[in-house]
Design goal:
Layout: H1 2-11, H2 16-40, H3 43-49, H4 54-82, H5 84-104, H6 108-125, H7 128-139, H8 146-175, H9 178-198, H10 212-224, H11 227-256, H12 262-286, H13 292-312, H14 317-341, H15 351-379, H16 382-411
Length: 412
């Protein structure tokens, strides 16, 4: 924790209480990001090495999104009722078990099962640490700090993502055993879960029923009737589809069409994470001159352009790589800034629940996106999928500009 304490102290950004909460939150999300990127640099390669086909890989990944949909809604209620820190710790422990099981699996059915276990852990984790952190800032009347701190932390997180990618690249290159890196991811997740469970106080949402399932139904009804939440939901669906298409295709195209070496993929991910880190740090400076929502809009436009450039790159590896750099920079702007302004629209008493409701619906949409992507790859090509992603991303940018920005401007 000392490295981040020194960094924040030098910047003079945080007060004593803010350091306490920010350091704890930063350690959680940085640890998660390192593990997730190590896994992300290895899991497709592992399945490919086991002889799993492209269609089967996208099928497993799509059903992982479906599992997230199943688990996300109740997990948000669990976090608000029983504690957001508790949900974070439990999610990390279950995720770790799922990753270890996935790493040791040798057949398609087991890979499928443990992807579901991992999804349960991710669902419990999703939104819980941020809900805990934002409401802690609210308790000490420092909620506005999130507008600058969250993009800054996004930059720090991306550095840890780069470290995770570098570790995965090193392990995968020298051990030639893709099981090892994913197994270590599981071990690290369990250790992080234990760390979270031992430190600091928890916080909770507000329950209207003593029955868990009744509370979940009441929450869904309230969510449906909340216009701000519906607006956020549409945005997340528009934002999630292009990202899902990108996530499921760029490595497959790089390895199987452009013949990138497996070891290069890890190095590329390191570079991409550093690019996202730069975009996060840049955002924390730009927010002094503009707003998080404006930076998000610019990032969304960059992502839309980048998909077109990926198509135009053809078989030129360098052009493809440059297009990937641009899309990662745009994604960095989008994700590091969305995390700040989205909290202005989510009520504190249901912060975890509503966040999980949005991500649950997004996961279901990603499931259908993945299924559609599988069909497009089979019948047409990955490049057609990228053009569709560019079109959706352009609509997302316009939606931000016309629908969400006016709402955020009023809040500010």
């Amino acid at each position: 924790m000392n490295w981040l304490y020194i960094l924040f102290d030098e910047k003079g950004i945080l007060s004593k209480m803010e350091k306490k909460y920010s350091l704890f939150y930063a350690n959680i999300i940085c640890g998660y990001s390192l593990i997730d990127t190590m896994y992300g640099a290895s899991y497709i390669l592992l399945m490919a090495s086991l002889g799993i086909s492209d269609a089967q890989i996208t099928f497993i990944l799509s059903f992982a999104s479906f599992f997230l949909f199943i688990f996300d809604l109740p997990s948000g209620n669990f976090a608000d009722i029983y504690g957001r820190k508790k949900a974070t710790a439990l999610g990390l422990l279950i995720w770790g078990i799922g990753l270890i099981g996935f790493s040791l699996s040798k057949i398609y059915s087991l890979l499928f099962i443990f992807s579901g276990v991992s999804a349960l852990g991710v669902a419990l984790y999703s939104g819980s640490p941020q809900a805990w952190y934002v409401d802690k800032l609210k308790e000490i009347n420092k909620l506005d700090y999130k507008n600058k701190i969250l993009p800054f932390l996004g930059g720090v997180v991306s550095i840890f993502s780069a470290i995770g990618a570098l570790l995965a690249s090193f392990i995968n290159s020298y051990s030639k055993n893709l099981t090892i890196s994913i197994f270590l991811c599981g071990v690290f997740a369990i250790i992080l879960g234990i760390f979270v469970s031992l430190l600091y106080e928890d916080n909770y949402g507000v329950s209207k029923s003593n029955n868990f399932f009744t509370e979940m139904i009441v929450t869904v009804i309230e969510f449906i009737n909340d216009k701000s939440m519906n607006t956020l939901l549409v945005y997340n669906l528009l934002k999630g589809a292009p990202f899902t298409i990108f996530l499921l295709t760029w490595q497959i195209h790089a390895i199987k069409t452009l013949n990138y070496d497996v070891s290069i993929i890890g190095i590329m991910m390191v570079i991409f994470m550093l690019i996202q880190s730069f975009s996060g740090f840049l955002s924390s400076k730009l927010v002094e001159r503009t707003t998080n929502i404006n930076i998000t809009i610019v990032g969304a436009l960059m992502v839309a352009i980048s998909f077109v450039l990926m198509v135009l790159a053809g078989d030129y590896k360098l052009f493809y790589f440059l297009a990937l750099i641009l899309i990662e920079f745009g994604l960095g702007l989008v994700f590091s800034n969305t995390g700040a302004w989205i909290q202005d629209l989510i009520p504190s008493d249901k912060r975890s629940t509503y966040y999980s409701t949005i991500t649950a619906t997004n996961s279901l949409f990603n499931f259908f996106t993945g299924m559609g992507l599988t069909l497009i790859i089979k019948l047409f090509s990955i490049k057609l999928a990228w053009m569709i992603a560019s079109f959706i991303q352009l609509i997302c940018m316009l939606y931000l500009l016309r629908r969400i920005k006016p709402i955020i401007d009023k809040v500010e």
